[in-house]
Amino acid sequence: MSEGKKLRLVDLSLPIRNASFDTQEQHIEYTDHLEMGRLRAKAYGIQPDDLPLPGVHAAMERVTLSTHAGTHMDAPIHYGPTSEGKPAKTIDQIPLDWCYGDGVVLDFSWMEAGRVIGVDDLKEALKKIDYQLKPGDIVLIRTDRWRDFDKVDWVMRHPGMGRESTLWLIEQGIRMMGTDGWGWDIPIPTMAEALKNGDKAAFFPGHYAGRDKEYCHVEKMARLNELPTHGFKVGIFPILIERASGGWCRPVAFVEE
User: Fold this and answer.
1) By its UniProt entry, which InterPro entries does this protein fall under (predicted)?
2) 20 to 30 A from 17, CA-CA: which of 188, 200, 221, 247?
3) How much is the pTM?
């Protein structure tokens, strides 16, 4: 950090919660201190009042969770079994140096739901902020749709990336990218309708680009609107889940002020 400057940390994640409007499975079972006191007393063969704080033990939760619920990182194996002709990486194989770098925010908060962000859109957004991408940058697609987290149709409110735009970012040396929309591609029902009408290329084109070029993206981020367009660091480290196609993460931006 530069001398004399303060560091502001910005949480770029959304919470896991019960009754979420996310379509990915997530359920939290809470056990409070008194319940745990009784459960542990039974397990240890003692009376609850024998505990150091009578009747009270450490609270605990049990979570049932899809690896793609909440703010999470997709590994290349999520997109298909191979990437660049080799076995695709699982989340526990993602290089850590992909997960920390200079952040770049491209603003598409003005774009309507269901629209595909193209290469020209990316180039125009970069031109507006006078920035040239370099290998190792972490590109964040700002839609501001994280604000709709508690709307029942949250999953339908975001624009998304396409095949060509995703490949173009990878070709600039970008291995890690993310969005504060529900998904990387446009809403699934919209893509599914196009598929039913015979347009196979319209079905998860951004995801499936990872079969040809290796990359990761993070979905369901938040508060990208609180960041400068560039000139900050971002860390996005996934939970280490063996052989998994995705992993939960808590992205954090480090902004000098």
Assistant:
1) KFase/CYL, KFase_sf
2) 188
3) 0.95
